[in-house]
Amino acid sequence: MNPARLLLVIPCYNEEAILHLTYSKLSVYYNSLKQQGLITEDSRICFVNDGSRDKTWNIIEQLCQQDPNIIGVGLSRNFGHQSAIMAGLEKNMDSFDCFITIDADLQDDMNAIAAMVEKHREGAMVVYGVRGDRSSDSWFKRVTAESFYVLMQKMGVPVVFNHADFRLMDRRVLQELGNFKEINMFLRGIVPLVGFRNDKVFYNRLEREAGETKYPLSKMLLFAWNGITSFSTFPMRLVLYFGVFNFLVAMIIVAYILFSYLVGYTVPGWTSTMLPLTFFSGSNMMALGLIGEYIGKIYEEVKGRPRYIIEKTLNE
Ligand code: UDP
Ligand code: MG
């Protein structure tokens, strides 16, 4: 079997604390893959700087100077994890056969790469890295992340359970991915939609060795919310159910008011005025807010702005 021309794409946002370590571990591992004949000699590693405010880009420049196997891509500002991945992938699409994306902190065990490449050899076009054990994550991260996957699946989004953005894609898959024009690329949901033969590789999630997470709770919630609203109209349907329920309750209240009127019990009550008033205006607001959320999404997409802007590249 011929070795694959592999590109490893690594999005980096304020990763100065860990980049050297990541580089040295990866390059050793990469060389062993080359020696085993799993990947070609011209397989490379691409670091994408996602508008970091620290020395990340300087480090990437330095690495590019000392090692011709490294490609540096610098975005003009922070575009977010998913866009940084897309930039690294699309920029180099024509020069490689298959692509693996992995986080800069190597929390996703790089040793799974060999197994991924093997599966690709066996004919899988997409190989998902799936976290077997994630006891190294805090219980909070574990609970929120796992409920996120359950929620997504319940809403009909085809995410792979416990799979993040550690995956292999064949060039063919990447070409098709380019036809998904949305700016908010939620890759975990979109890649399964592209189809083709896929497989999984299990690994244990490791601890971040330096630096801190670039996904604080607020960013994590935003990411989850984007994932849900980009893929599922289920929240809108919930509003419909809620609306129907409200209507039925309103009918009962109307019947009660009419009944009171007919039997002569017509003392004007403050409670019976205020209660429905606040309740219904509240639920109206909620429904409007949710509809607004989707209209906002349409607005974002209709503008057709670029997903990312590459400012500079090194060793291309
Ligand atoms: N990242 C990025 N842009 C951002 C936020 C994060 O490129 O705006 C990168 C980050 O450098 C890392 C990966 O995305 O390589 C995942 O981030 P992190 O490890 O902080 O997330 P966690 O593993 O804690 O969910
Ligand atoms: Mg991480």
From TrEMBL:
Kindly give the membrane topology term recorded for this protein.
Answer: Multi-pass membrane protein
Q: Give the principal location in a single coarse category.
A: membrane
What parts of the sequence cross the membrane? 238-262, 274-295
Q: Which CDD domains match?
A: DPM1_like_bac
Record localization: Membrane
Domain Glycosyltransferase 2-like stretches = 8-177
Q: Which GO terms describe its molecular function?
A: glycosyltransferase activity
Which keywords appear in this protein's UniProt record, sorted alphabetically? Glycosyltransferase, Membrane, Transferase, Transmembrane, Transmembrane helix
Return the InterPro entries for the record: Glyco_trans_2-like (IPR001173), Glycosyltransferase_2 (IPR050256), Nucleotide-diphossugar_trans (IPR029044)
Q: Which GO terms describe its cellular component?
A: plasma membrane
Q: Specify the protein name.
A: Glycosyltransferase family 2 protein
